[in-house]
TrEMBL record:
Signal peptide: 1-23
Source superkingdom: Bacteria
Keywords: Signal
Tagged with keyword Signal: yes
Protein name as annotated: Uncharacterized protein
Length: 102
């Protein structure tokens, strides 16, 4: 039996639960880590960032975690409106971000 999918779901649930306590930066020019649904691909996540007027800085440990700089105010709200499951401080959530680049 393949346990990869349930293990991935459990891991992502723990990440979301743990990261929900991490505050989003309050400075309007601060970057955020946007976590999109794991069933999305990188192109869907990048398109959601573009619709949110965000600029991708780098990719996280998986393709649907993107570090984003704002091009205007209220980036976190716009990212959530376009599908982000979670928006967190990228420094505090550093373990999820990996070393990928955009």
């Amino acid at each position: 039996m393949n346990y990869a999918v349930p293990a991935l779901i459990a891991a992502l649930t723990l990440i979301v639960a743990g990261a929900s306590a991490i505050a989003v930066p309050t400075a309007p020019e601060s970057a955020v880590a946007a976590v999109f649904p794991p069933w999305w691909d990188r192109e869907q996540a990048a398109a959601a960032v573009a619709r949110s007027d965000g600029l991708i800085v780098r990719e996280g440990a998986i393709a649907t975690i993107l570090v984003v700089r704002p091009a205007g105010p209220d980036l976190a709200d716009r990212l959530r409106a376009h599908g982000a499951v979670l928006v967190v401080d990228p420094v505090a959530a550093g373990g999820c971000l990996g070393t990928g680049s955009a």
